[in-house]
Each structure stands twice: as C-alpha cells, then as structure tokens.
Specification:
One of its GO terms (molecular function) is calcium channel activity. InterPro entries: Frizzled_dom, MID1/Yam8. By secondary structure, the protein is of the alpha+beta class. It has 15 helices and 26 strands. It folds into 3 domains: 140 residues, Sandwich (Jelly Rolls); 148 residues, Immunoglobulins (Immunoglobulin-like), CATH 2.60.40.10; 199 residues, no CATH class. The N terminus and C terminus are likely disordered.
Length: 591
C-alpha cells in the first residue's frame, strides 16, 4: 500500500527532527518553571485542549514529573541545632531532610534525633463568632524511609509519624540509622482566617532545640503570681537553687528567664502558648532583661533572694495594666547569650505552663516593692491614690515608719548580753542576730498589712477601717455599720495607717501566726514579747492560720497567690506552733 505521508529529502527529515527536539526542550523548560507556579499543582489542566502536543510529549512530561518529585523528596537539608524559618503557603507543604552524613547516622547503630518546631505566627480569625476559634494546627510528619521520602500531608503512609502542633509547638524524638524526611503542613483554615503560618523547624542529636513543658496543675507551675494592685502585678520564678553554696554564683549570672504577658481573653496567643518565637513576636507585654533596661520602661526583671528560704529566684514586675482585668503570663527559659543561640543545643528555649493572674478593681491597695528597710515586703498594702499619687512616696512612708519602730527595738536589745560565753547566752539554739531578723520580719509584716479589695471573696480576709470614708471621700452606710457591729473592723491594725495613709475601707489578709511565734522562739524572754493565744479574740483579729483549701489564707512574706505544693513551704509552721504554745504565757500583742 503506498504511503500517504509526503516524501522529504534526507536533509529535510533531519531538520524536522531537530525542530521537534528543540520543541521538546523548550516545553520541558516551561514545565520545570511551572513547578513553582499554580500550574504545577494541576499539570493535566495545563495540557488540556492540546491533545496533539499531549500525545507527542506525555512520555517526556512523565519523566520530568518524576524528576520534580525526586527533587522534592530530597527536601531542604537541615544542620544540627540550626533552625530553618519559613512561611507556609496552604496547599504547599514544605519538606526538610536530616541527612545521615550531616548528623552522623550509620546503619550499625541507632542514634537519637530530636525534631522540634515552633509556630511563630498563625492566621488571625476575622469571622463573626464572639469567641474567636483557632486555625487548624500545623502538622509535623516524619519518615525514616528513603522509599517514602517526604511524607504527604493527607495520605495514609507506612513508616510515617504525624505530630499535630500543640499550642504552636511540636516535638518528636526517634532513633534512626538513615536520612530522616520532615514535612510541615496545615489544613486550609478557610475564609474566616487571614494571614499565614510562620514557623521554625530544627533537628538535633543533643536535645530538643525548641521544647515546652507538658501541662501541669497550678501547684507545680514554675511561674508564680505574688500579688497585684489595680495597675501592676509581681510574678516570680521558683527557686533557681536550694543549695546555699551555689546561691552566690547564680546571683552573679544573667537572669535565665523571660516572661510574656497577654490579656487573658486573647485566644490568638493561646494558639502559640508553647512557642518561644510565637510568644516573642506576638505577646503584648514582653518582660525581658533588655526591655527592663530601657528608659521609662513599665517592666522590670532581676534576680532576688526575697521570699522563704532566701534562695535565688527571678522577679518580674509589670506596670501599666488595666484595672479588674485577667492576664496570662508565659515564662520562657533561654540560653544566657542571646546573640548565639543558633547552633547551641536547646537554643530555641523552653516554654513553661502559663500562669493566670488578675488586677484589682480599685486603687485602695498599692503594690509595695523595692523597699529599703523592709526588703522582704513585696505585696499590696493599703494606699491612697489621692494623697499619694506616687507609689514611691507611699511605700517610703511605710518603710520609714517601720524603720523608726525598729530603732526602739534596738534600744531594748542593747540590754541583752549578745557577745558572751555559751553558758551566759539566753539560748544555745538561737542568738541575737536570729532575734533581730525575726523581729524585723514581724514588724514589717504587721506595719504593712497585705491589702485586698473590699469586694474580695477571700473568706480569711477581714474588714478594716470600715468607719472611714473612701479616699474620694464617699461613704457607704452599709460598710460603716459593719464597723459598728465589730470593733476590729472599724480601724486598721495600727493607728499609723488610719492617721497618715488614710486608705478608707479595705480587707486585710492577716499575717501567718508563725511570724509571731518565730520572734518568741528567737528572742530572749527578757524583752517581754508575747503572742496571742489561738482561738482567743485577740488572735482571730490579728493572725491567720494556713488552710490547704485556701491559696492565701494568711500572709507570709514572699509566698505567692498561685497555689504551691507542700514541698515549696520551706519551714514547718506546725512545729513552730507546738513549741510556741508551750512557752507563750500571755496574749497581748503590740499591733
């Protein structure tokens, strides 16, 4: 049968073949570029309507597509303790690889690999719901199989481990012998969210580069709430050590923590509550060492030994808060040298469980911090914003009063033989320095009562100064009647407060009874110091007792409002109570 194709000279046929080859190369080039465009997600639509070309070059494109997938399977290489940062486009998962040559894996021994990631930003909710939901979590997918390569986000694949981010963080530890492939992906959050996912991912053979503390009950949290007034709050870490020999060295070091404060109703930050970069980039109030050094800063942080035991801890003071508001504090532990965290094991930081706290509704109580004489006092005291608009002047007034009262005590101590033989000393267990310290603690605590809003629901807080007008000179007849019914409610525990400070009605958290008993135990009987007997009227209106069911049943300097476990109480008040009961013979008290 004769051929229907035209017959071309040999040279012409060679020319046609060259043209076709060039066409293949040009279209292949277009396809390579298309892998970075929307066309790469749907190659069939690109070829639709061009059947002739599709038939001619389908095989070539198939080879090209395999090549593209092969390159994707390789992933972006990771290095030990070196985080990679990227914005994630929905529908375009990102792949990384921890190569055995870089991390030192071999088939003869399985080595641990620590993979961690932080969400540094998540889409914002722009919908109409009153309580803003969070966008879908990022997902960390990991494969240790070269056959699988980069895990696909939604496919059911063998040898793939998937870890949804929790609070903006994900951690996975596995033992490996070969390359490890890591995919970061997220489901489409929909039109009710705007913005992108920003994240950082790291792999380490030492430890997790980014880490967070699993949820714990309040009594085990690392960040504690000490106290608040209507515009400021004081937070503190737990003891950095309980070894007295190491305390001096720790106090010379840089503070190890940063705290990030946010309004309690901010659900967006809750989606990054375990992410160090998410908190650093999105929290409203960062309480960092750098911020506290700025001029006119409203935050301050430093190391201190205030509080029970006298061990080092880190304080965080935050000013400029809203009255009667709820807040959340997030504490992060970072490496000391902030400029060289990349490349360091654990350089991304550890995020601890968040701590909730609140401010008071009125300005009747003011935070007393940074006192010169009563240096262990760090809680809210009765105030008067009209008479003392500057809190510094208020606490100085209190401090000077306590210092003056202490000078009278020093005159009494001059009559005691402190420097003498052991047989002449008043006690073999205590000395005059112990007496002075115990008396100073007691004096500062009773001179500066721990103040609560008059609206406080604390069942152990008692009414004070009910017969006086509020600082704005308003009077509530119902409150005045409370003072008439109970004389202890009608005035403050000492006349100095009512005469000089004039705070108006407030509630007081009574000092813990052991503060008084410590003076009796530590001082010579000759000075005549006695405490009221438990269950007597004088005791019930002057001192409080601890109650496991009430977080702040009584006031002991340095103890927080955050509930703490029994192990955190560094002295046994029950033992003090028993011994004091034996030696106390009276119940008269100075205040």
């Amino acid at each position: 049968m004769p051929s229907t194709l035209p017959s071309y000279p040999f040279g012409a046929r060679i020319g046609v073949m060259i043209l076709r080859l060039l066409s293949i190369l040009i279209i292949s080039s277009i396809c390579v570029k298309a892998q970075e465009s929307p066309l790469a997600a749907a190659p069939q639509s690109f070829w639709q309507g061009t059947d002739a070309l599709n038939q001619a070059f389908r095989a070539g494109f198939s080879l090209l597509q395999d090549n593209i997938l092969s390159k994707r399977a390789e992933g972006i290489p990771l290095e030990n303790n070196q985080p990679k940062a990227l914005n994630l486009v929905i529908g375009q998962p990102q792949c990384y690889v921890a190569q055995k040559g870089t991390f030192g894996f071999d088939k003869d021994s399985r080595k641990p690999l620590y993979i961690s990631a932080n969400a540094c930003g998540i889409p914002h909710y722009v919908g109409k719901e009153k309580e803003a939901p969070l966008p879908p979590n990022l997902i960390l997918s990991v494969s240790n199989s070269s056959a699988v390569g980069c895990p696909l986000p939604s496919a059911q694949q063998a040898n793939v481990t998937r870890v949804p981010f929790e609070g903006g963080a994900a951690m996975l530890q596995l033992n490996v012998t070969d390359d490890v492939y890591i995919t970061i992906s997220a489901d489409d959050p929909g039109t009710d969210f705007q913005g992108v996912y920003a994240y950082r991912v790291a792999a380490s053979t030492d430890m997790f580069y980014y880490s967070y503390e699993k949820p714990r009950p309040d009594e085990l949290k690392e960040l504690l709430w000490l106290d608040s007034d209507s515009s400021s709050s004081l937070l503190v870490s737990r003891n950095l050590t309980t070894d007295a020999d190491h305390s001096a060295a720790i106090l010379k070091e840089q503070p190890p923590y940063a705290v990030y404060v946010n309004p309690g109703n901010d659900s967006h930050i809750w989606g990054m509550r375990y992410s160090s970069c998410g908190l650093d980039l999105n929290a409203k109030i960062p309480v960092t060492l750098e911020r506290s050094k700025e001029a006119n800063s409203t935050v301050h942080t430093d190391l201190t030994t205030r509080g029970p035991g006298g061990f080092p801890k880190q304080e965080f003071y935050v000013n400029g808060l809203n009255a009667s508001a709820n807040y959340t504090g997030f504490m992060v532990k970072l490496l000391p040298n902030s400029g060289k965290r990349d490349g360091q094991p654990g350089g991304g930081g550890t995020v601890f469980n968040p701590t909730s706290f609140s401010t008071t509704s009125s300005a009747n109580c003011k935070m007393a911090v940074g006192l010169e004489f009563c240096d262990q006092t760090q809680y809210a005291v009765p105030g008067n914003a009209f008479k003392f608009p500057n809190t510094t002047a208020l606490i100085k007034e209190y401090d000077n009063y306590a210092k003056e009262m202490y000078s009278n005590f020093e005159k009494v101590m001059m009559q005691i033989q402190c420097e003498t033989t052991s047989t002449e000393k008043y006690s073999l267990a205590r000395n005059c320095d112990d007496c002075r310290a115990a008396y100073k603690k007691w004096l500062c605590t009773v001179s500066m009562p721990r103040c609560e809003d008059f609206t406080s629901t604390n069942p152990r807080a008692i009414i004070r100064n009910a017969g006086q007008p509020f600082p704005d000179r308003t009077v509530d007849p119902a409150i005045v009647k409370l003072g008439q019914d109970n004389p202890a409610f009608n005035a403050s525990r000492n006349s100095f407060i009512d005469k000089v400070i004039q705070p108006g009605p407030y509630k007081e958290i009574l000092p813990c009874a052991e503060i008084c008993y410590e003076v009796v135990q530590s001082c010579p009987a000759k000075i005549g110091f006695v405490c009221p007997h438990p269950h007597m009227i004088a005791f019930d209106s002057s001192y409080g007792k601890r109650d496991p069911a009430i977080p702040l049943a009584c006031n002991y300097p340095g103890e927080p409002r955050t509930p703490i476990s029994g192990g955190m109480v560094l002295r046994s008040w029950s033992a003090l109570l028993i011994s004091a009961y034996v030696i106390i013979v009276g119940y008269y008290m100075v205040y």
